User: Which sequence fits this backbone?
């Protein structure tokens, strides 16, 4: 690849990604997606707000590369925020970062970058791409703690040929060190972990601010006995402990969200365990899934051994070797074979 | 490929002859023009020479030319200065929907101060109707501000006619001539204006210097306080190098004004004809004939302007778009909205503005590159099977 667009968020990772590309002789240009997301006055710096765009610009000036700011607000709204709100209202726990990677960064941004005349797109993700026998493979990066492949499982396989992850072989500490030595202005910037469009008050407040109908309802146990009232199912996540305002001798967890009856089902920790799941919106990053693999059901989850079977309707059934806690519909299940990311899907049913 | 600069409406390269004229002001002529001694007198002489040259260029008296920091300051000065000085007489200002932000925001500011502002619409070519101006005038009207030519779409407004109406009705008339000064032939009397804003960097002069023409007898309050410079109307030590450069820029522009306007008009028309031959689904924004010699403003159907600007920049061609992203969502400019551009065209505007160093081969290179860029963007389909985001 000769001319590479680097998606610059204003943070240290994408800054170093650009630096590394530049050092390896690529013609490098910074591109920042303007998402129309502005944090509240005095709020914490978030990805892609006005200050982040400024930071991305100052990094590009420090590197002596061009920087373009391009509007993606309408894409974010249509492809990430609207489905996010709809999923929550259906009682699911969506993952907007997966959607953003699929539809924006490795969707419209990549397509646009190619149309603008770039040969490919680089980002500051901690992930790796290797060329294998049958084509390119998505791999886990050197820094296991920062591994972001979970969020990347849904990107179309053919994009891998057009994408570079320059941080694949570096740890976060190394990245900060490189940034500091290079005098990049963002080397000591604190990390943003939050969803970029989410206010500090959390997703319940966000959904309300979007006029989503959030109705209080009943909290019941597995036997159907009413234990209390909830503020609206969209404010809860499966596996959540506490915040239920229900008194009980043992800690209670959210086991299930019943959107049709606007109910939360709660129970003990052992009831959280599930033997498997069914996933839809399946994306394959390899020719075919093996029968056995490891599955990650949320970002912080340790990949668990499982058996995979592909259903006629294209969905996947994943059965864990050991039951797993808090399998949440709407979250992604991501399949790994060692270092290789096989693909994944959106959890639709808990078995 | 040598880069091609086609954004002269944003700014122009400084002519080397202007740079040379300015250099003594960074050497021997360093004095403060207000000082009594010889150093000061030399500097004063330099700015007065520039003032005389510029005044004569627009048929004004030297004392009617006040140097400012640029077009934005001149607009602010004219509007706030006249409004405040005549507040006892009235509180009504007339302007148009396609004015530069320096005019519109100044009016908005005055609205908060209790003034009333009539913002006249324009037709689909961007023209203000003088009859509408006449209708809008009341006995409370103190100022009319209509731009000479629009910076985005290039439409030249019927300033002389509006000026005649203003004169008859005894209302002060200001025009923002930033895009026409040094490019179109006019005098302040031909235009019937009382106030006129101009900026040096739009005619191959330096940045940071402009002027406000103020017709003798116009009631206006000073814009800056703290000194007697510019006859007490604009305190602050003058930007001597800038003013000298401005003078030189005007001298150079005046010397070739008619030929340059004819040359650029021919280029402009060649560009427009050529692009319509090569590309479908486009429209020309602004008036087809009553337009700046150097302005080409196109809308390309269903394509975002910023993608085209970016792609062209990658090829070394610099132009601009009327809808760019800052930190909030992408919105078409107020000017494109005012001419009622259909939705499918409103995000895909491109402005090419030509100037002193534009060559015919540049026009041909852009005519070659633009259809390719548009073709690529039109063919762009997401790499996945999903629909194109709305």
Assistant:
């Amino acid at each position: 690849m000769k001319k590479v667009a680097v998606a610059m968020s204003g943070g240290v990772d994408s800054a170093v990604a650009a630096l590394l590309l530049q050092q390896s002789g690529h013609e490098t240009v910074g591109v920042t997606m303007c998402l129309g997301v502005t944090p509240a006055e005095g709020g914490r710096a978030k990805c892609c707000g006005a200050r982040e765009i400024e930071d991305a610009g100052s990094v590009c000036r420090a590197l002596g590369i061009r920087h373009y700011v391009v509007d993606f607000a309408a894409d974010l709204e249509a492809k990430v925020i609207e489905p996010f709100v709809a999923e929550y209202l259906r009682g699911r726990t969506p993952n907007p970062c997966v959607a953003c990677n699929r539809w924006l960064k490795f969707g419209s941004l990549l397509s646009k970058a190619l149309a603008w005349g770039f040969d490919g797109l680089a980002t500051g993700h901690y992930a790796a791409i290797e060329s294998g026998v049958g084509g390119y493979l998505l791999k886990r990066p050197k820094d296991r703690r920062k591994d972001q492949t979970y969020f990347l499982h849904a990107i179309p396989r053919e994009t891998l040929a057009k994408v570079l992850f320059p941080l694949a072989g570096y740890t976060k500490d190394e990245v900060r060190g490189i940034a500091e030595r290079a005098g990049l202005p963002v080397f000591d910037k604190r990390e943003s972990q939050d969803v970029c469009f989410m206010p500090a008050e959390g997703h319940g407040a966000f959904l309300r601010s979007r006029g989503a109908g959030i109705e209080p309802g009943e909290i019941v146990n597995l036997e159907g006995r009413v234990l209390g009232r909830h503020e609206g199912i969209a404010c809860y996540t499966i596996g959540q402990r506490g915040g239920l305002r229900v008194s009980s001798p043992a800690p209670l967890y959210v086991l299930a969200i019943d959107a049709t009856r606007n109910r939360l089902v709660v129970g003990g920790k052992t009831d959280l365990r599930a033997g498997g799941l069914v996933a839809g919106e399946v994306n394959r990053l390899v020719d075919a899934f093996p029968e056995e693999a490891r599955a990650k059901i949320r970002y912080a989850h340790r990949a668990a051994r499982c058996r995979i079977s592909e259903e006629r309707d294209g969905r996947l059934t994943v059965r864990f070797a050991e039951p797993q806690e808090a399998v949440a519909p709407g979250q992604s299940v991501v399949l790994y074979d060692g270092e290789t990311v096989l693909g994944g899907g959106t959890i639709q049913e808990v078995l | 490929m040598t880069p091609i600069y086609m954004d002269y409406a944003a700014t122009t390269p400084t002519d080397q002859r202007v740079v040379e004229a300015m250099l003594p002001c960074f050497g021997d002529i360093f004095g403060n023009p207000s000082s009594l001694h010889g150093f000061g007198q030399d500097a004063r002489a330099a700015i007065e020479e520039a003032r005389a040259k510029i005044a004569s260029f627009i048929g004004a008296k030297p004392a009617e030319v006040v140097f400012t920091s640029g077009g934005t300051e001149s607009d602010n000065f004219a509007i706030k200065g006249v409004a405040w000085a005549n507040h006892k007489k009235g509180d009504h200002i007339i302007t148009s929907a396609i004015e530069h932000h320096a005019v519109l925001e100044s009016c908005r500011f005055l609205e908060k101060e209790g003034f009333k502002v009539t913002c006249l619409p324009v037709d689909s070519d961007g023209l203000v109707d003088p009859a509408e101006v006449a209708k809008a005038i009341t006995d409370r009207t103190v100022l009319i501000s209509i731009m000479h030519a629009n910076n985005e779409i290039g439409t030249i407004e019927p300033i002389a006619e509006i000026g005649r109406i203003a004169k008859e009705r005894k209302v002060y008339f200001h025009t923002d001539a930033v895009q026409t000064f040094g490019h179109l032939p006019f005098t302040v009397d031909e235009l019937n204006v009382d106030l006129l804003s101009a900026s040096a960097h739009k005619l191959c002069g330096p940045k940071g210097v402009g002027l406000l023409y103020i017709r003798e007898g116009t009631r206006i309050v000073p814009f800056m306080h703290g000194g007697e410079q510019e006859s007490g109307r604009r305190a602050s030590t003058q930007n001597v190098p800038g003013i000298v450069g401005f003078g030189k820029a005007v001298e150079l522009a005046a010397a070739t004004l008619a030929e340059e306007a004819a040359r650029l008009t021919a280029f402009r028309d060649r560009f427009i004809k050529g692009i319509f031959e090569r590309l479908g689904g486009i429209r020309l924004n602004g008036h087809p004939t009553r337009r700046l010699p150097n302005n080409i403003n196109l809308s390309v159907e269903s394509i975002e302007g910023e993608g085209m600007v970016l792609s062209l920049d990658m090829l070394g061609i610099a132009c601009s778009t009327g809808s760019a992203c800052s930190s909030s969502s992408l919105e078409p400019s107020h000017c494109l909205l005012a001419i009622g551009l259909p939705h499918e065209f409103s995000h895909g505007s491109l402005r090419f503005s030509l100037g002193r160093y534009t060559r015919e081969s540049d026009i041909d290179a852009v005519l070659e590159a633009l259809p390719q860029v548009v073709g690529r963007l039109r063919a762009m389909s997401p790499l996945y099977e999903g629909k194109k985001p709305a």
